[in-house]
């Protein structure tokens, strides 16, 4: 008698991943590729994005690279349209794109504040909204929102970035309550410091600390573990931090 799998298979699922050209997004994309997912990769940097798509294709994945600026609603809608034209479905959405500017609130430029909210929150909201009909139709679907421990803590010069991540956690909790009845599981993952390009232009002393930071693989493996749980089980929030900060 055939044994029925009790976990959600990533193989043959269609996954849309933002911020996929480097860092956490790139590692998630390549892990999904190894598990047989079909990939739609979005980021602003077209050249790097195509490199990730090529790497995914080399392990047998069907990968579509779509340069997208999440600050523009028309580009977001194009991303969803092209995904459905190519694959006809969306099973997994990983909202990973995001960036930070860091100033005291007294000195925070309005244009930088607006840029962060346009991508980290507004763009994420629009993309999620546009994907919901396809995610509902999938029957079993997953939305992963990559937030940060900054969304649960405060720090000097973090007023803008932390605000976007606090808002993202609230958004994710509401989305989970609204859509779980439609077979959609929602995970918000809050990493601490991760050794990515995010820190390349930060404080001079950061290099001495990078060896103790999380790696993108640590975050990706946590996300995959959640996705592969049985449909009956949902981990809605994960905090993951360096063991020795």
Q: How would you describe what is shown here?
A:
The chain is α/β, with parallel strands linked by helices and 245 residues long. It has helices spanning 23-34, 46-58, 73-87, 110-138, 159-179, 216-227; strands at residues 14-18, 38-43, 63-67, 92-95, 141-146, 184-191, 237-240. A 7-stranded parallel beta sheet has the order 3-2-1-4-5-6-7, sandwiched between helices. The model has no long low-confidence stretch (mean pLDDT 92).
Features:
245 residues, alpha/beta, Rossmann fold, seven-stranded parallel beta sheet, 16% strand
Indicate the proportion of strand residues: 15-25%
CATH superfamily: NAD(P)-binding Rossmann-like Domain
Mean model confidence by pLDDT = 92
Order of helices and strands: EHEHEHEHEHEHE
The tally of helices reads 6
Span from first to last CA? 50 Å
Number of strands: 7
Shape: globular
């Amino acid at each position: 008698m055939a044994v029925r799998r009790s976990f959600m298979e990533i193989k043959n699922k269609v996954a849309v991943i933002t911020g996929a050209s480097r860092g956490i997004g790139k590692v998630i994309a390549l892990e999904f590729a190894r598990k047989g997912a079909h990939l739609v990769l979005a980021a602003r940097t077209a050249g790097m994005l195509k490199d990730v798509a090529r790497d995914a294709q080399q392990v047998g994945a069907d990968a579509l690279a779509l340069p997208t600026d999440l600050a523009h609603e028309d580009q977001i809608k194009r991303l969803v349209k092209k995904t459905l034209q190519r694959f006809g479905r969306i099973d997994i959405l990983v909202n990973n794109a995001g960036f930070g500017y860091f100033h005291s609130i007294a000195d925070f430029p309005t244009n930088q504040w607006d840029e962060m909210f346009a991508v980290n929150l507004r763009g994420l909201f629009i993309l999620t909204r546009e994907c919901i009909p396809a995610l509902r139709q999938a029957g079993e679907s997953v939305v992963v929102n990559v937030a940060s421990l900054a969304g649960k803590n405060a720090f000097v010069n973090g007023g803008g970035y932390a605000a976007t991540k606090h808002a993202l956690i609230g958004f994710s909790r509401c989305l989970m309550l609204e859509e779980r009845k439609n077979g959609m599981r929602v995970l918000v993952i809050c990493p601490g410091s991760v050794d990515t390009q995010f820190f390349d232009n930060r404080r001079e002393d950061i290099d001495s600390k990078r060896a103790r930071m999380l790696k993108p693989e640590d975050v990706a493996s946590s996300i995959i573990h959640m996705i592969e749980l049985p449909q009956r089980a949902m981990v809605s929030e994960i905090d993951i931090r360096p063991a020795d900060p």
